[in-house]
Amino acid sequence: MVLKVCVGSSCHLRGSYDVIEEMKRLIKEHGMEGKIDLQASFCMGNCQNGVSLKADEVLVHNANKDNCEELFLTQVLPRVK
Ligand code: FES
């Protein structure tokens, strides 16, 4: 599955770099390298609710480094085939 993290200017200011680093860590911790393709993305048009993610094109709002694990477990892992 494809996990995109928005690195547009608004999400960047809200900490998308930290979200990417945390997602990298979680992918590794769960042995999901090769199953989850982590990508950076331009603005997703959801700046008010950033950091924005897309898990297989499903928009996920309000990611931050503190809720990454919860989002990973509830929004990302269930979409891995
Ligand atoms: S900058 Fe991330 S949704 Fe716009």
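^ FE2/S2 (inorganic) cluster complex. Residues 6, 8-11, 43-47, 50, 52 surround FE2/S2 (inorganic) cluster (CB under 6 Å). The mean pLDDT is 97.
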